[in-house]
Specification:
This protein has 178 residues and is of the alpha+beta class. It is built from five helices and eight strands. β7 and β8 form a beta hairpin.
């Protein structure tokens, strides 16, 4: 019998949902949402179509003791909402810096879920970061608005590779000092 590792990662409460570590049982909902082209296209790392095993590997990596990224599910079950409304993560960088990434499931787009999750993560600052960076594709102005509403400052234009688009895509880069 294989025992699951215990993930030592902070649970963060909001008034709408909790940010909690991923569970194996999240696989179905993550695949249902992340498997949609309209969501995958707005991320750098989600392939489309979603190959078998990708979600399990993602969840497993989020549990590794030597992981470089902490990942939380936006879990609304306590408030009568979906168990996975989206994902938010912090990737550890050097010099007490990190990079935030997030996606919200399409049924929750334009409902303030992303802003609520990001504000809660910034307040908790679980990695004790001095600076947090973020970038969004320039054809995703809704994510840029979330960053600006949360106090991120525009740094400049760049580009990043999108796995689902199989292309380099222009981005806007932001930072926030904590």
């Amino acid at each position: 019998m294989q025992m699951d590792q215990i993930v030592t990662q902070q649970v963060i409460d909001t008034d709408r949902f909790v940010l909690r570590p991923l569970r194996k049982s999240d696989k179905g909902m993550i695949e249902m949402y992340a498997g949609q082209d309209r969501l995958a296209r707005m991320t750098t790392s989600i392939p489309h179509p979603l190959p078998p095993g990708v979600t399990e590997a993602f969840i497993q990596r989020s549990h590794e003791p030597d992981r470089t990224e902490d990942v939380w599910a936006l879990d609304g079950t306590a408030m009568g909402a979906a168990e996975v409304m989206g994902i938010i993560s912090l990737d550890r960088l050097d010099r007490n810096q990190s990079e935030v990434g997030y996606w919200v499931a399409p049924p929750f787009w334009n409902t303030g879920v992303a802003q609520t999750a990001l504000e809660a993560l910034l307040r908790a600052n679980p990695l004790q970061s001095n600076t947090i960076f973020a970038s969004v594709f320039q054809d995703n102005p809704a994510s840029a608005r979330v960053l600006i509403k949360c106090g991120f400052e525009y740094l400049g234009d760049a580009e990043d590779f999108s796995v689902s688009r199989n292309a380099t895509v222009p981005t806007w880069t932001y930072s926030k000092s904590l």
